[in-house]
Amino acid sequence: MRKSRTKRDRQLNQAVDLVRWWQNLCATNNETFLPLFFDEHKHLVLKGSAGSGKSIFAGRKILERCATEAGHRMLVVRKVAKTLRESCFDQLKKQAYQYYPDAIKKIPQGKSSDMYLLFKNGSEIIFAGLDDVEKLKSIHDITGIWIEEASELDQEDFAQLDIRLRGDSKYYQQIILTFNPVSITHWLKKRFFDEKDPQGRVRTHESTYKDNRFLEEKDRITLEDFKRTDPYYYQVYCLGQWGVIGQSIFDKTVIGDKLLHLPKPEKFGEFAYDYNGLNITSIRFVAGDEGEITVYESPKSGHPYVIGCDTAGEGSDWFVAQVLDNSNGRLVAKYRVRTDEDLFARKVYCLGMWYNTALIGVEANFSTHPIKELERMNYPKLYMREVEDSITRKLKMSLGFRTDSLTRPLIISELKTIMREHPELINDEDTLNEMLTFGRNSKGRPEAAEGAHDDCIMALAIAYYIRTQQSFAVVGARTGKKIHWERDMYEDYYRASPEEQALLIARWGNPFD
């Protein structure tokens, strides 16, 4: 009986200690980071604005693990070794004395002393800069890594650290990365935020100064004052948006504000269709979160649409189609994909038919195959450009849009005007992000920054430029319930001219919904 009571008392004491531990953790940490104390992903990626508290959390987590799990060998790194002493090392010393004084065995003092923390249970935290190659080579048996200011590292630096976190360990091994968002073209964004993690080893987290309840009021006031003095700086460094190096030809403040308040797309999806090698029939839109088509506004009966297409050419691996409602100039859908030319042509065919037989203009610079495919499949409304015959010098009409030294600055200038005067028309995240990195090179030519893309920009610019070959008027809206299309109705539709097709859709509804 006495032993049973002793066991219950021990269990009760353990429960009380656990509750006190959790209460202390909640009282001394920001709520947004609390779940991350239990996170065991291989890569814990903390993107945050200035003053968000991400580095304080990262330090606290590795101290917590070292104090409660014996035998850890944690590594704290920055790109340059001399920056560690007055940043990470000083921070961890203060946190160790404040929260784990009974667990600490030794912390070297003095500005010239080695940097490490030794715990009574044998755990230790060591510090190294990636510029100190010899010291880094001697470090082994690492059980966890904290990379502060990870945006300072090259991808090769990270790869070397990632390799070091291997081998047997009775505890989970984790690399914590903390950084402020910098260039939107940075490898961190592509590696951890843009690309999917098929192995499930990555957890990303975003925070701002608004998540930090411990931030001093004077610091909060300083940060919020940037709303007035430097709106773009406020968006990047205070709200944690991805930034851009260099000067974009588009207004970064306007774009940054739009990125903060983007409406959710109506739906995502793909087209299913029947294809006999010659023709596409039975087009169906299949909604699904993994779909490569982003729909902001479904087709409306009687509305005229325009589609601009940028093909994967030199320096790009994306095919993009941007869809405009020609009655108001609003971007209503985007198709962005890595695929083959013929498959892209088929999906664009479906996209065009779904959007009331939209006018389609495809870039003809690097390959005319998508245009020829659309023509072969008898797509009824393709953009035509004037071309001077090299022999007769007479003007003739040719399919597709050609980007050259005359048309390129023209369409970009028009898109710049639209973004300045009517930014409400464009709410696509990929397109806006491309605009942030679209600046002038050393010769003054507008182009995407190194490592960035401009496919969405060019497809959209083409769409706006070719609008004059499509009607701007909305045909009378259909009323009543949608009519079920019979076979003879489809036959009438495919035999009709584009103008007649628009009238049929206005009368019977879109057969491809």
Give an account of the 3D structure.
The structure is a single chain. The chain is α/β, with parallel strands linked by helices and 513 residues long. The protein folds into two domains: 21-243, Rossmann fold; 267-508, Nucleotidyltransferase, domain 5 (2-Layer Sandwich). Helix content is 36%, strand content 20%. It has 17 helices and 19 strands. The chain has helices at 2-27, 54-68, 85-99, 133-137, 155-164, 187-194, 217-224, 226-229, 231-238, 252-260, 341-354, 369-376, 407-421, 429-436, 455-465, 487-495, 498-508; strands spanning 43-48, 73-78, 104-106, 116-119, 124-129, 144-148, 174-179, 202-207, 267-275, 280-287, 293-295, 305-310, 319-325, 330-337, 359-362, 384-388, 395-399, 438-440, 446-448. The strands form four sheets. The protein has an eight-stranded mixed sheet. Strands 10-9-11-14-13-12-15 form a seven-stranded mixed sheet. The protein has a two-stranded antiparallel ribbon with strand order 16-17. Helix 2 packs across helix 3 and helix 14 crosses helix 15 (455-465). The chain is elongated, with a radius of gyration of 29 Å.
Q: How is this fold's topology laid out?
A:
Blueprint: H1 2-27, E1 43-48, H2 54-68, E2 73-78, H3 85-99, E3 104-106, E4 116-119, E5 124-129, H4 133-137, E6 144-148, H5 155-164, E7 174-179, H6 187-194, E8 202-207, H7 217-224, H8 226-229, H9 231-238, H10 252-260, E9 267-275, E10 280-287, E11 293-295, E12 305-310, E13 319-325, E14 330-337, H11 341-354, E15 359-362, H12 369-376, E16 384-388, E17 395-399, H13 407-421, H14 429-436, E18 438-440, E19 446-448, H15 455-465, H16 487-495, H17 498-508
Parallel strand pairs: 1-7, 1-8, 2-5, 2-6, 6-7, 12-15
Antiparallel strand pairs: 3-4, 4-5, 9-10, 9-11, 11-14, 12-13, 13-14, 16-17, 18-19
